[in-house]
Every structure is written in C-alpha cells, then in structure tokens.
C-alpha cells in the first residue's frame, strides 16, 4: 500500500470502499456487482478530476514523495549489464551520485544520476541526494571517460540541490559545479538529461547541460525551492504554495517556456504507483532521443547544445516575478 498525499484522500477512501464491498461479496456470497461497477466508474472520474488538474504545489508534493522511483530504480528497469564505478580519483566516493557503464538495447552508454534513499538509514548514507564536490567530480570523470570511448551520456536528475555544508564549500563545491557546466558544454558525445524528481539549483544543473532535457510530468526544475523563494520574496516560507505557482517550475510550464524538450507522461497519481509502466513511458522517449542524437557529428552536438542554452531565458516582454504577494 502506497502512502498518499492529502489531496488524494477522496480517491483512497473511495478505493477502500470498493475493496470492502468486494470482500463482503466474497464472504457473504451476495451479488453487489452493480454497486461496485458504479463506484468504480465514480473512482475513475474522481481520479481524472484530481490527477488531471494538479496544481503546481501538488506536483511539487508528488515530486518529493518518499516512494518516488530513484535513479537505481530506472537503471534496473531500462538498462542491462550495469557496472557501477566509484570515486573521483581526488578525494573519495560520494554516494549521493551514482554512475557507471551499461547497455541500452545493446548500445554501450554511460549512466549518471543523483541517488537519494528510500528510508532514513539510506537517506543518511546518500546525504538525502545532495552531492558534495567529489560527487560532481565523479560524474565528470565518468563523462570524460564516456567521451574517450564514444559512449552517449544519460543523466537522471533528482536532488534538492548541492550540499551547502562547510566541508563541501572547503572542498570547492562551486568550482566543481562550474567545471561540470563548462565541460558538459563541450562534450563530444550525446548527452540526455531526464529530471525524475526534484531538480534544484546548481546541484541539478551540474548534470543538466544536455543536448536534450526531458522531465517526468510531475517533476520540478528550478533555481530554488518554493519555500526558499517565498522566504526571499515575502519573508515567509509558508507562501511556498503561491511561490510554486508564480515560479513556473513544473514540466508543463517549462515545456511551454522551451526550457525542456519533452514532458514524459506519468502514471496516474505519480511514478511511484507503477514503476514498470513508468519506465516504459521513459523508454519510448529515451530511445527516440538517443537515435536522433547518435546521427549527429560531434561538432553538430556541441553547436546544438550551445544554441539550445543561448536561447533559454531570452527576454520576451512578459511580466516577471515581483516582491508583492496576494492577501
């Protein structure tokens, strides 16, 4: 049984009622098929109403769901022969970023992604998916190795942001992120980045300079969290819900703004509801992207990457976020 979010309560209650009636039918041998069918129709309509009209804040909640699939979940579903590689050859091995060599439909690729935990113990081990500098240097080492052996790079983005602690700053957090941006911009192999959960700040961008960027439907990608933006703009983090609306950080908004290339459909209710089905949706997009990019020469890949990022953030005359808040 999956844990559910507050706005899902009506769906969960109706589903439980249907299960109760089915159990009662089996135990008492009473035909309630008509009532069950009516309730199932109501359930389908209710799911369409709720999941088909999600607010930005509700999408943020789904992106943060504790059971949401992680990088390793998708690696196991989409790739074969995965061999994890460790360490940055400078300081140590950061378990908040995982990566290695794998095969995608028989083609050798390099896979890199943020990795958070599914429980408290693993979250502590993975530092809640917030990398230190050695994590980004490990990612860069694997990218340069991929370039050497002409392997496409596939990145999974899922982090609240780079770890802001003292030790991370002492070891060069900002330089490590900046180095990744610089090197990824000139990498001579295809790069595909997919936001699978939260994509927060430079911690996400350090794996996000790709030829194509895709997002799961209920993922977020932003320079700062809604809570952080609310605290800066309105001096009150409780306005996070309004900030999420204003910032336009969801996949539908970013697709409209031209920041991402494709929004990947999610299973109704979120990717955690059905990992296998969600992976199949991702598989379709990944296969198409990889096929298209592998037709390009190295110079074309770099030129297209440059043009892509040059166009992001162009001023169009539209209104921008202000420091005012609604009463």
UniProtKB/TrEMBL annotation:
Enzymatic reactions: N(6)-carboxybiotinyl-L-lysyl-[protein] + acetyl-CoA = N(6)-biotinyl-L-lysyl-[protein] + malonyl-CoA
Subcellular location, record wording: Cytoplasm
Keyword Iron among UniProt keywords: no
EC code: 2.1.3.15
Domain CoA carboxyltransferase C-terminal: residue ranges: 38-292
InterPro entries, per database record: Acetyl_CoA_COase_a_su, ClpP/crotonase-like_dom_sf, COA_CT_C
Assigned keywords, A-Z: ATP-binding, Cytoplasm, Fatty acid biosynthesis, Fatty acid metabolism, Lipid biosynthesis, Lipid metabolism, Nucleotide-binding, Transferase
Pathway: Lipid metabolism; malonyl-CoA biosynthesis; malonyl-CoA from acetyl-CoA: step 1/1
Keyword ATP-binding: yes
Pfam family for this entry, one: ACCA
Top-rank taxon, per record: Bacteria
Assembly behavior: Acetyl-CoA carboxylase is a heterohexamer composed of biotin carboxyl carrier protein (AccB), biotin carboxylase (AccC) and two subunits each of ACCase subunit alpha (AccA) and ACCase subunit beta (AccD).
Task of the protein: Component of the acetyl coenzyme A carboxylase (ACC) complex. First, biotin carboxylase catalyzes the carboxylation of biotin on its carrier protein (BCCP) and then the CO(2) group is transferred by the carboxyltransferase to acetyl-CoA to form malonyl-CoA.
UniProt similarity note: Belongs to the AccA family.
Descriptive protein name: Acetyl-coenzyme A carboxylase carboxyl transferase subunit alpha
Species annotation: Alteribacillus bidgolensis
Gene for this chain: accA
